Amino acid sequence: MRRFLMLASCCLALLPVWSQAQEAAELALPGQSDVRIVVDISGSMKENDPDNLRRPAVRLLARMLPDGASAGLWTFGQYVNMLVPHREVTDQWREQMVARSEQINSVALRTNLGEAIDVASDAYYSEGTLKNTHFIILTDGKVDVSDTPSANAAEEKRILETLLPRLVEQGATLYPVALSEQADTEFLGQLAADSGGHFQVAQNATELNFAFLTALNAAVPQEQIPLKGNAFTVDQGVEEFTALVFWGAQETRETRTLELVRPDGQTYTLERAAGNMRWAREAGYDLMTVAEPMAGEWRINGELGNGSRVTVVSDLKMVVSPVPARFSAESPISLKIAFFEEGEKVTNPEFLQVLDVQLKITAEDGRSGTKTLSEGAVPEDGVFTDEIGQLPVSGQYLMEVHADGKTFGRKFSATAVFDAAVDGGAAEQAGRAAPVKQEEGNAIEEIVSAPKEPEVAPAPVIENPIDTSMAEQPRVVDTAPLGEMSASNQKAELTRPNWWIAAGLGGLAALVVGLLAVKTHRSRKAALARAAAERETVDDLQSGSPERDSNHAEESFGMADFDLSDFDDFPEQNRTSTPTGDVTEEPAESEKK
To answer: Measuring CA to CA, how many Å separate 27 from each of 14, 322, 410, 415?
Structure first.
């Protein structure tokens, strides 16, 4: 026993060291990622992808993958083919990927997804490990290895129960993308959920490009420069930038016009690009890469579709801790942001104090909120922290970190799904009851969406103290009003063996019950007070509340902390009441379609 206690003490003593090491690892410069792209070429793609949108989407991945990462392309039907060898990403590899993407077709007979993952997951390509390995999988159907349904079901079971756990244990993450709602979305969703990845359904070229870009951004987080309108500022430390500009909804290749304007006014187009530029135009997007760019404000003349971005290669990097694919109130996102220059974390207070670091969260319906993370004292370790554990409703949210350093800007983005049901819906109810508040300076405004009256906490269970010698008998709980005994409880007492003991001790019982009633009343009163404190009402907060410390590492961070001036309330017509009286969210008509 003594040896066990000593061992436990040693482990407890090492916990702070382990936690610090884990934190340091999270904020270290990320290692090079391994991306394996697996594309379905089964015959059903002729119907679900008649325009072969897979080709430009694959070329988008090829052009956006950073130097130094490793990647390969596999196609599959009944058999699996390595179309582009798994290699380090270089200009030569990109050219090969772009050229061979033209061989993606729809001629295969089956959909042997398990074999494709098996072949592509060979650890030989990564020296025996799948750590930091990400699979981007595009398919339109279900597992189809035989005409016999039982054989297909058995293969699905093998993938989920044997193959997937092995890959996850080795460190792999899967990002399935379905090119049709006819795909087995439940099966593909489980591949993503069990491995910590994202699952998406794409119905057109725009959605497919976004789905691939989301998967790539999760697999290989890339630093960005914030776009302000149609302009962005390139600082002296930027070695290269890549501007990805999505087309407008009505634009075509024939009507598309786009200009890139240098800080000195020099204008470039697809037909008149400079020698240090690579400009590619595909269905739905333009991609412009500029090496050794001139410092200053660049402009893009033309329509910038949703999702347009500018990524950079620079010695000055903003590093953000990994954002999980899913989170909840019980399992929140612990956000950490630090800056690195030439591989070293920046802790110089003169640099950190001029930074304006903000977190912006955008819901699926376009509503957004922001919170400033750089207020207050400059962090001594150079790490800005916060926690995201509470949002109004379940759904997918876009997380963006913006840093403005006066002479430079950086941006990070990631998507994550908030699951309010994890804690039994309490998180979702708390989100709906979020009050409205204005704070001078940081202007925090919260959503109000049909706040509910605080539920009365249940009274503590009171066991009848009479006849304590009968412990083996069923216990009877009195649920009558405080100070009274229910008729059913009285009956139960009278039918117990030795009831005459109760009668003989009636006076004593009355005294005990009276004392317990007083104690229970006080307990209930305290419980109600605690419930009221935990469920702040609109009136409570409008009358004034303590100011928040935005840098407090242990503070829960949800929509209550955002500037939601551009957030509209949840539409009343989209809410229904369940038989229990709980409010539930239903999709808008546009979403149902």
So the answer is: 20, 9, 16, 19
